[in-house]
């Protein structure tokens, strides 16, 4: 009998989950996996208005519905201000989700140019250490995020190089449909977060692995 897998996607901001793993989320849902999306931060005061944040939340729920997200949570930390929270408190919030949800797979952002992505990555590494319930985690991997991952300084900072590509050929349409829900975030082509750019990246990652469309990940730890 197949065991139902649980997948935790940790996203610094609404839309990162769809940009980095939208096709995989749809595929996991199709396989009957339970998918939990944890959104850490967002466009909140003092840098943004509450109305702007509420709009992205509405957009996120629309995208989640398309992708088949079973459960989600928003921590509502202002964007770029994650570092203002004591690190033990921040780590504790993510560890609490891991301990309660008990995921088999954890996907988190690659530590790229955006400070929020780096801080979230660091905290996920703490929360997924192979102790306690986290010993049951089979895969911890990072996803790439257009306009952030690709802006790291070559050879000075780490560059994203996938060592795991998930075939999303049957789910690319759902990924792009979900991404279109983020009207406040997606730019027109040739913007780096345009629909055309996201589709092109998926096509490139797919052909790297021998299929039409793919999403690239870098595996941090894998056990089996």
Structure description:
The protein is built from six helices and seven strands; from the N terminus they run βαβαβαβαββααβ. With 224 residues, the chain is of the alpha/beta class. It has one domain (6-222): LmbE-like (Rossmann fold, 3-Layer(aba) Sandwich).
Question: Which descriptors apply to this entry?
Answer:
224 residues; alpha/beta; globular; Rossmann fold
CATH topology: Rossmann fold
CATH superfamily: LmbE-like
- Mean pLDDT figure: 95
* Uncertain segments: none
Beta-strand segment tally: 7
Structural class: alpha/beta
Roughly how much helix do the residues carry, as a percent range?
A: 25-40%
Shape: globular
Give the helices and strands as they follow along the chain.
EHEHEHEHEEHHE
The end-to-end span amounts to 17 Å
Number of helices: 6
* Gyration radius, rounded: 16 Å
Biggest sheet layout: 7 strands, mixed
Q: Architecture, CATH level 2?
A: 3-Layer(aba) Sandwich
In the residues, how many domains can be counted?
1
Strand proportion, as a percent range, falls in 15-25%
CATH class label: Alpha Beta
The order of strands across the largest sheet is 3-2-1-4-5-7-6
């Amino acid at each position: 009998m197949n065991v139902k897998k649980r997948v935790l996607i940790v996203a610094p901001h609404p839309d990162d989950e769809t940009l980095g793993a939208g096709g995989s989320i749809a595929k996991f849902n199709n396989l009957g996996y339970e998918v939990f999306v944890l959104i850490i931060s967002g466009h909140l005061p003092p840098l943004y208005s509450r109305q702007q944040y509420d709009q992205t939340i509405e957009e996120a729920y629309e995208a989640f519905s398309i992708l088949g997200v079973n459960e989600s949570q928003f921590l509502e930390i202002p964007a770029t201000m994650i570092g203002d929270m004591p690190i033990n408190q921040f780590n504790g919030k993510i560890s609490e989700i891991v301990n309660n949800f008990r995921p088999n797979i954890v996907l988190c952002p690659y530590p790229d140019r955006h400070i929020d992505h780096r801080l979230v990555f660091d905290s996920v590494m703490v929360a997924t250490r192979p102790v306690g319930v986290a010993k049951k985690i089979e895969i911890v991997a990072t996803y790439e995020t257009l306009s952030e991952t690709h802006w790291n300084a070559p050879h000075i900072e780490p560059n994203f190089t996938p060592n795991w590509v998930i075939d999303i050929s049957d789910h690319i349409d759902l990924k792009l449909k979900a991404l279109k829900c983020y009207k406040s975030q997606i730019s027109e082509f040739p913007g780096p977060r345009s629909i055309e750019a996201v589709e092109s990246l998926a096509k490139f990652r797919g052909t790297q692995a021998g299929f039409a469309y793919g999403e690239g990940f870098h595996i941090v730890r894998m056990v089996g």
